[in-house]
Amino acid sequence: MQPSAAILVLCTGNSARSQMAEGVLKSLDPRLDVQSAGTNPAARVNPLAVRAMRELRIDISGETPKSVQQFVSQSFDYVIAVCDDADRNCPIFQGKVGQRVHIGFPDPAAATGTEAEKMEAFRKVRDDIRTRFTEFYENTIRKGALRNMSMNVKEVVKEKYGQAALRVASGEGSACCGSSPSSCCSGADPITSNLYDALQKSELPETAVLASLGCGNPTALAELKPGETVLDLGSGGGIDVLLSARRVSPGGKAYGLDMTDEMLALARENQRKSGIENVEFLKGEIESIPLPDNSVDVIISNCVINLSADKDKVLREAFRVLKPGGRFAVSDVVTRGEIAPEIRQSVLLWVGCVAGALDESEYRAKLAAAGFENIDVEPTRIYRAEDALSFLVDKGIDASAMGPEVDGKFMSAFVRATKAGAQGDWRGPACCA
Fold it and tell me: I need a labelling partner for 366 at 20 to 30 A (CA). Which of 45, 79, 116, 156 fits?
């Protein structure tokens, strides 16, 4: 499990405030790599701090005060000083730091009075630490981790799909929905194989078919009509755009949106070879669609939305560009039930259309939150334990052990929804009107 952030908490003695803050952060997120240190570390953690934290069921009794000098060769995302007079007395960390923060607290060890009164001083500081560090975690650390994850996923997706396009363009083989050619480009990939019939394939250049990275065939299910405008989110080599363009002709148009230069070049070459003119490929990201409001009749996508780390934004953008009555009709990978953390947290499996998949109920909820109506998730292919061997191989995960845990929990599905308006929805006219 990869740490989401590296954090160093500083104080003078590293015996009370910094140790309590370290304990709070670790309890909030076990993935955090948290250390604490001081300029003059005490011989042991203050027993009253241990007692106070134990009341929260956080055990810091095994911790040892450490010197800040132990960490000067390390890098941290955050260095947080917790002394109440940090500018004058708190340690200054000389190593590499992403962000320096001061969240000051009075020293409970300076409290006088009875043992009970001293204990109350520790409880008060402990509660203040818990409140303020929880706020800092939610507002800064967690959001920063999500932002970094989004950037990491986007860069890995762009690199891997660019490589896939180059393989196809150079004649080295087909693309696939996995992170390496050996894992699924042999024709046996359980996600991407056998999605298009022979007639559809015969209508298009071979490179458009070989570049398909999808998990379904949205053009066969989207009920496209002549004269409509259709947008394919994450259009890749262009297979679904070119098929859609034929279906909406005459009078219609098909847009393809992709962020990968290599895929766009391949798609435009496939368009040239096919001779289809009512097509336009756009460069951009599905989280920020470069089209005006209310400009598209149908949005399709093929195993791409699950690759985004900000699916809420994707769905809001899809809703924005759809005309009133417009239809959302995408193929995607969805899940049912609990999924092992090793699967969810792997960026490489994200590229393989697996790790980023939403639970079907969560997909419905996100569509509704974006404003969609008439939401339906229809499974089209359910993956079994033996299929897991194909998309877990080469990912650093024990496929034989993990296979039973994913059996029946991943599926390709056709996800439908509509934007309220005059055109009606994909279900057709209501009965008995």
Answer: 156
Check 83, 176, 177, 215 and give the catalytic one: 83
Does 238 or 295 have the greater pLDDT score? 295
Q: What is the DSSP string of 290-349?
A: SS-TT-EEEEEEES-GGG-S-HHHHHHHHHHHEEEEEEEEEEEEEE-S---HHHHT-HHH
In this structure, the strands spanning 96-105 and 75-83 are: parallel
Residues 6+ apart with CB under 8 A from 262: 161, 162, 163, 165, 166, 169
pLDDT, residue 121, reads 95
* Catalytic-residue membership of 90: yes
Distance CA 286, CA 334 (A): 18
pLDDT at residue number 122: 96
Active site residue 185: no
Other Cβ atoms less than 10 A from the Cβ of 3: the count is 14
> Rg of the chain's alpha carbons, rounded to an integer?
27
Annotated active-site residue in 90, 177, 185, 215: 90
Model pTM score:
0.57
